[in-house]
Amino acid sequence: MGEKPEKSPGARVDQSTMSSGWWDERFSKEDAKALQKVGKENASKAPTPTAGKDGKARGTGWGSASVPTQPADPKVKQPYYDKRIELFEKYFERTQFDAAQAAAENVPIKITLPDGAVKEGVRYVTTPKDIATGISKRLGKEAVVAKVDGKDWDIFRPLEGDCALQIFNFDTDAGKYTYWHSTAHVLGQALELEFGADLTIGPPIEEGFYYDCFMGDKTLADEDKEKLSKRIDKIVKEKQAFQRAIVTREEALHMFQENPFKVEVIEGLPQGSTITLYRNGPFCDLCRGPHVPDTSVIKAYQINQMSRAFWRADVNNAPLMRVYGVSFPDKKLLKKYVHRIEEAKKRDHRAIGTKQDLFFFNPVSPGSCFFQPYGTRVYNTLIDFVKSKYWDYGYEEVTTPNIFHFNLWETSGHAGHYKQNMFHFHVEKEEWGMKPMNCPGHCVLYSHRVHSFKELPLRYAEFGVLHRNEYSGALHGLTRVRRFVQDDAHIFCRKDQIEQEVTAYLSMFKEIYDTLGLEYDLALSTRPEGFLGDIKDWDEAEAALTKVLNMWEGQEQKKWTLNPEDGAFYGPKIDITVYDALGRSFQCATVQLDFQLPLRFKLSYVNDQNEKEVPVIVHRAIMGSFERMIAILTEHFAGKWPLWLSPKQIMIVPISGAANDYALSIKKTFHSARFFVEADVRDLTMQKKVREAQLSQFNYILVVGEKEMEKGTVNVRTRNNKVCGEKPVAEVLAHLTKEKEERSLTGVYPLKT
Ligand SMILES: [Zn+2]
Ligand SMILES: [Zn+2]
């Protein structure tokens, strides 16, 4: 598949429909833990989704702040901005005073680097940047952020004692996060100074950042980008240093009292948490940090789109403007980014979907796709591909209902934690819900009769239609939909079978992803704080997964990584990141162990001692949602489908009307051999018909005339206008059948030499 694509954080916002776990990953671990305790009586107070990864901001809870009373006008807001700085200086001095006193004591400290080297420093004097510069001038210059004993730390913030220090540059995820987050402060300042906007939140996202602000009725237009850019240029030139101050809740509330959004955020912070403010130039924001040392490190940036949003993503709340941007420490990186975005635009699955008559959406059912015949061919080919693997790997297909009484969702836990993402309704005065996941149905299936240890593992697979109630404004092509199908399966097994099942899963996963030509990385996510269940089970399961991953690493010569404490609260999992041809990352496949769901459904099997035991459930998916996978593959292949997956495989082009019957007979031959084949018998020139077929991305074009008819041959061409020459029909059929059956990514037809 050529060279490995350059890795970059995914360039777009999309949906984690791939999560086949019964608990949506968009809930944080803390939410999970808290909710487990709170129980269903408080279900209506469900937490804010907190997925930084899918582009949504981290929040503290729904609520509708009152709308600011002052108009969006920088002149009107100036006294508020001035007040903030005046107060900040006071708090900053106080913070500095405490630090200066500690610094004066001149206490030596030991700083341990990741390689074990120990550096000397002085308490409240030495900064991570000093240490970085001591290692190399270049590292000092490039260092963006640090971690001190695992905690995020400003690169310019003095160390407070003996510690373990890690330093990150822009090339790392931590570095990018801080860099983009810091640039969001610069954008925030520009929005205030240019438009007098009331800022809400400005988080980094997968690639870049945004700032949401309230501007009354005003909407930003493209010409406003220039104003913002000019202001940002100025801020960067001013080399504004980021300063940090610690304040009390009352002080923070007082400082931001003119901005009801910030007030709501402050009020949502847990009691007793440290509240920090950051200033750069005339701008001051409530923020946990960390940040870059000063604004001059931003060497290149771009304001991207500006769109409508709502406070806390709720249409009933204040309408906001969202301004997206991206920044880089090097102009070349911006250039590369712009190129990649342009390439991505050309490959946009929505555009290709329309052009190739694959699928469309209609307001009669937003977020639920209409797949046309061509699109359905792709859809079915992918499903058939997975089905063939199920056959090889001993899965059984099952069929379960689409709607379930809410009693089932109570048992599964969805009623408490997931209801707002479900379509639910009343039938005969009882509440019902459409399934957002297959797991609960499969548990019912399992519990239908008694199982012996000898029967396990049972691998239930279902291409069930799932529905999730996504906010209409968040819907996006095939990547964020309401209706989808996953290659979802649940393995009910004994604990001693975890290793073999996960090994088989990885092997199946590899076969499928190698066939699709997608690169991938594996990571093990271990038990989070507040995990549920027996620690011994966790230890054994994590050991089994580690063993499997090590074996995989040995075979594939590819390192896996560890995400400590990042597992679901119900079991450890292997996270799989997939990269497409543009180097964008996606999460589609997943394999998660679950010790909790079997308990909720009181599942058991009879062991060899004739006692009841609880099985483990392995939630696993490879494609994830087929809808989303079709979006990824459309863009990955840029609409040039490999033959086996192509909805338009062969076009027969007769040179003249005299060859039409021959063309139709060839069509029949290939149709019988299960090819998607068409014959263009319109009264147009051969050249025009060939060109059209190539633009429609037919893999092969077979041109026939009276001469070919006599000899039983065809003239073979590819969509890229490679000429293979005149060949006997039987030979072409044999070649193309081989290419299709091998699911080859590249055409194997020998070219004319
Ligand atoms: Zn910040
Ligand atoms: Zn599941």
In brief:
The protein is α+β, with helices and mostly antiparallel strands and 753 residues long. It folds into three domains: 29-57 and 359-636, 2-Layer Sandwich (BirA Bifunctional Protein, domain 2), CATH 3.30.930.10; 65-340, 2-Layer Sandwich (Threonyl-tRNA Synthetase, Chain A, domain 2), CATH 3.30.980; 643-741, Rossmann fold (3-Layer(aba) Sandwich), CATH 3.40.50.
Describe the 3D structure:
By secondary structure, the protein is α+β, with helices and mostly antiparallel strands. It folds into three domains: 29-57 and 359-636, BirA Bifunctional Protein, domain 2; 65-340, 2-Layer Sandwich (Threonyl-tRNA Synthetase, Chain A, domain 2), CATH 3.30.980.10; 643-741, 3-Layer(aba) Sandwich (Rossmann fold), CATH 3.40.50.800. The protein has 22 helices and 34 strands. Strands 16, 20, 21, 22, 23, 24, 25, 26 and 29 form a nine-stranded mixed beta sheet that branches. Strands 2-1-5-3-4 form a five-stranded mixed beta sheet, with helices on both faces. Strands 6, 7, 8, 12 and 13 form a five-stranded antiparallel beta sheet that branches. The longest helix has 31 residues, at 74-104. Bound molecules: zinc ion (2 copies). One zinc ion (ZN) binds next to helix 5.
